[in-house]
Amino acid sequence: MLRLEPRPQASRLMTWLSPLLATVLTLVAGGVLFAVLGRDPVEGLRLFLVAPLKDLYGLSELLLKATPLMLCATGLAIGFRANIWNIGAEGQFMLGAVGATGVALWAGESESALVLPGMLLGGALAGAAWAAIPAWLKTRFNANEILVSLMLVYVAQLLVSWLVFGPWKDPQGFNFPQTVMFADAALLPVLVDGTRLHLGLLFALAALVAAYVFMYRSHAGFRMRVAGEAPDAARYAGFSASRTIWTGLLCGGAAAGVAGMAEVAGPMGQLTDKLGLGYGFAAIIVAFVGRLHPLGIFLASLLMALLYIGGEQVQQYMNLPNSIALVFQGLLLFFLLGADVFIRYRLRFGSEAASA
């Protein structure tokens, strides 16, 4: 006989082993998937996990993809710690890109050193403003922040489309839905010559450090963690629920907005209707695989970026759709949720289980 038995307390060991177990099971399931599709599983996994890391350019692309994931996941983790469920980082990412683009277009051909800081500020404020909508509706009308933040993603997509098809459309762009290319002063400096890796990586690393200090070395972060882990204790201590909601959502929105700014000021160099790359949604998986901890988020971002690049490799060399990367992301989340069951439960076998 086999059954799940509640643990006396949550297992700290399983809390950290769960993401590793989910990753291993994802790779095993991925190998089975390649076999079912009539492809060599070993070659498929090699293209996913090894081929993207074969040279300096590949490593730089890995870090480039990981940058927006780190930023979005870091902001989300602050809210998730307090049970504030911001599911709209994708929309906040897009609004951050819109805010930064507005500054870049206003600056035009200016060579001022203030252009990039202005774009950074514009992106963060735009992302935070978009997150402020579900925060206000939650605190004023008790609206569900999950639904509101998610629905705003589609509003953001339509807003970006309207801008690049309308008032911000490049008149010399051969009718493509895109803005003019940004001036040099509005582009993030490249960190490694011959690659596309840019200064945004340092923004992401700084955000990880700032999140660690905030969550584990500040009284405000302590209030957030207590609100998530012991809501009754937080209420008894007089911690403001409204302040927790605003802090969680605004931090997530600002971080996603900076990620959007880094995307348009980095590899894209302009705003287009292809801005929505799913980073905001993938960052939800990254945050939970990383256990809502900055170090874990850093490692999980690299893993998720590897899945993105591996999907492109598989598309090129095995003639499979690039959406297979989304399948791997889904498998990772599925197995993570399954493995997390064993944080609070354990399996019991045989007569011991029967007698219990």
SSE diagram, text form:
Blueprint: E1 2-6, H1 12-36, H2 41-49, H3 56-81, H4 89-107, H5 115-141, H6 145-165, H7 200-217, H8 219-229, H9 231-236, H10 241-268, H11 279-289, H12 294-318, H13 324-344, E2 345-349, H14 350-355
Antiparallel strand pairs: 1-2
Helix pairs in contact: 1-2, 1-13, 2-12, 3-7, 3-8, 3-10, 3-11, 3-12, 4-5, 4-6, 4-10, 4-11, 5-6, 5-10, 7-8, 7-10, 7-12, 11-12, 11-13, 12-13
Beta-strand content bin: under 5%
Kindly report how far apart the N and C termini lie: 11 Å
Q: What is the succession of H and E elements?
A: EHHHHHHHHHHHHHEH
Helix share of residues? over 70%
Counting copies of identical and different chains, the oligomeric state is: single chain
* Strand neighbour order, sheet with most strands: 1-2
Structural class: mainly alpha
Contiguous uncertain segments of 5+ residues: none
- The average pLDDT value, as a whole number, equals 93
Tell me the overall shape.
globular
Task: Please count the helical segments.
Answer: 14
What is the number of E strands?
A: 2
Structural Rg: 22 Å
Largest sheet: 2 strands, antiparallel
